[in-house]
Design goal:
By secondary structure, this protein is of the alpha/beta class. It contains nine helices and eleven strands. Belongs to the phosphosulfolactate synthase family.
């Protein structure tokens, strides 16, 4: 599947500075029915071969934490695709050839998908689907209806609906979610406590903007779940990124109030996802850069880690 983000969207044929929305959809599609298959559903055989850690004749004799087969609802790993570095079909194929078993989704951050020639974008999306993963995007600046239709046309499955730079009423946000569902795709709301998060804003400027009450995340999250969303992305800024001290209390509060399988945390640094795995175990859903997939997968498997996690991450199942 694939995902795209609605951050600067407006209805109609004109690009405006804020989203413009229609009334709530009268029919709610199950998200697992979006586009062709559920998020992470099997499309190809590229990741069907067992990794050596799961083979008796390989390294299966080493104590490790086995991962459930795709599609997973816990321990989901979404990676950032082209953004900090360019990525073509051969580059992405290498990622899947080596780490395809570990990758559940690929996100095109910052509207990067719009910079591709269409045929090359379609190639990447098809490659992700062939490797049993979904695709997600971010930050469009176009009309809502045209944007959604084009995202569906090129093969995106998941639309990330973010208001990091906008003051958007919750009811309007829910209407956007319904509009995404109405187009036959999966909506993935992105929420956080830091206004202006998700861009290249300096930490000093973000700090001056202040943060919102964590209860806002929980309230919004419950409404999104009631609206049928499959998974909610928690923005890292203000929590573990661009802060003097991590807001671990916010993370604990979120996981205490929302189902863990419905939440995914952005973990922008190895020290951050090391902490998440240490505190909440291998099943926590995380979004990392594609360059970090090997390190995170070793940590989930319990075969590597930092001083506080190496040899200490385990499961009982």
């Amino acid at each position: 599947m694939s995902s795209s983000s609605l951050r600067y969207l407006c209805a109609g044929k004109r690009a405006l500075s804020r989203p413009c929305l229609r009334g709530l959809a009268t029919t709610q599609r199950p998200l697992a029915a979006a586009r062709h298959l559920p998020v992470g559903s099997s499309r190809g055989v590229a990741d069907s071969a067992k990794i050596m850690l799961e083979q008796d004749e390989g390294f299966g004799f080493i104590r490790h934490n086995p991962r459930p087969q795709k599609p997973r609802t816990l321990g989901v790993t979404e990676i950032r695709g082209p953004y900090y570095s360019a990525m073509g079909k051969r580059y992405l194929q290498d990622v899947f050839d080596t780490m395809g078993y570990q990758v559940d989704g690929v996100k095109f951050a910052g509207g990067s998908f719009s910079l591709f020639p269409e045929d090359k974008l379609r190639e990447l999306i098809q490659l992700v689907h062939e490797n049993n993963a979904y695709v997600s995007t971010s930050d469009p600046k176009t009309a809502v209806d045209r944007y959604l239709k084009k995202c569906k046309d090129v093969g995106f499955d998941v639309i990330e609906v973010s208001a990091g730079f906008l003051s958007l009423p919750q009811d309007d946000w829910l209407r956007l979610v319904d509009k995404v569902h109405d187009e036959g795709m999966v909506a993935k709301p992105e929420i956080g406590i830091q206004f202006g998060a998700g861009g290249d804003t300096s930490s000093t400027e973000l700090e001056s903007l202040g943060t919102s009450d964590p209860s806002r995340i929980v309230k919004a999250g419950k409404q999104f779940i009631d609206a049928g969303v499959e998974r909610i992305m928690i923005e890292s800024e203000g929590i573990t990124e661009n802060v003097a001290k991590w807001r671990t209390d916010v993370i604990e509060y979120i996981l205490g109030e929302l189902p863990s399988e419905k939440v995914m945390f952005e973990a922008a640094d190895p020290a951050v996802f090391n902490w998440y795995i240490r505190e909440f175990g291998v099943d926590v859903n995380l979004f990392v850069d594609h360059s970090q997939i090997v390190q995170l997968s070793c940590l989930r498997a319990g075969i590597w880690g930092m001083a506080d996690t190496f040899g200490k991450i385990t499961t009982f199942r």
